[in-house]
Specification:
The protein is α+β, with helices and mostly antiparallel strands. It has a single domain (3-161), classed as Alpha-Beta Complex (Nucleoside Triphosphate Pyrophosphohydrolase). The chain has 4 helices and 9 strands; from the N terminus they run ββαββββαβββαα. It has helices at 19-25, 73-85, 139-148, 155-161, and strands spanning 3-7, 13-18, 29-37, 43-48, 59-60, 63-65, 92-102, 108-119, 131-137. The protein has a 4-stranded mixed sheet with strand order 6-3-8-7, sandwiched between helices. A 3-stranded antiparallel sheet has the order 5-4-9. It has a two-stranded antiparallel sheet with strand order 1-2. Strand 1 and strand 2 form a beta hairpin. The longest helix is centred in the middle third of the chain and has 13 residues, at 73-85. The mean pLDDT is 95.
Length: 164
């Protein structure tokens, strides 16, 4: 079982809970989102695997997840970036924000999301259980695709892109 850290609006730890239970109950918990850019300024997007428990088959940022209880958020983001996309690089903290999204399957995301950016020009080898596809797009192309086909993107991604 995977556990997440429950937090208050100030990002202070208030407990731990099993990940699925946190999403079933809609409890605020700590998360992260990583945005990788290449030297041409293009953003690396992934299409979430069809086997994901929510938002499957949707385009989103390079990687996202939850730190384990007691795990440093940046260390967790680096770990998941390697696990999901097989990318090793340094991350830079950008900002954090809270968002809530209810899904058709009854789950609710209620996350205090830490946003990280990175620069990377190497190979990308996504784990097929995490991502079905990937692509590099300019920020202009990303925003244009979101405007044309918002249903093809995750809720959090559409919100975070406005920070860039």
């Amino acid at each position: 079982m995977e556990y997440v850290t429950l937090v208050n609006a100030e990002d202070e730890d208030i407990g731990e809970i099993e990940k699925i239970q946190a999403h079933e109950l809609g409890l605020l918990h700590r998360a992260f989102s990583v945005f990788v850019f290449n030297s041409r300024g293009e953003m690396l997007l992934q299409k979430r695997s069809a086997v994901k428990y929510h938002s499957s088959g949707l385009w989103t940022n390079t990687c996202c997840g939850h730190p384990r209880p007691g795990e440093n958020v940046c260390d967790a983001a680096k770990r998941r970036l390697q696990e999901e996309m097989n990318i090793h690089c340094e991350l830079k903290f950008k900002q954090k924000f809270i968002y809530t999204a209810k899904f058709d399957n009854g789950l609710t995301e209620n996350e205090l999301d830490h946003i990280f950016t990175a620069s990377y020009d190497g190979p990308v080898h996504p784990d097929p259980s995490e991502a079905d596809e990937y692509k590099w797009l300019s920020l202009h192309e990303v925003k244009s695709e979101i405007q044309s086909h918002p249903e093809q993107f995750t809720f959090w991604f559409k919100n975070i892109v406005s920070f860039f």
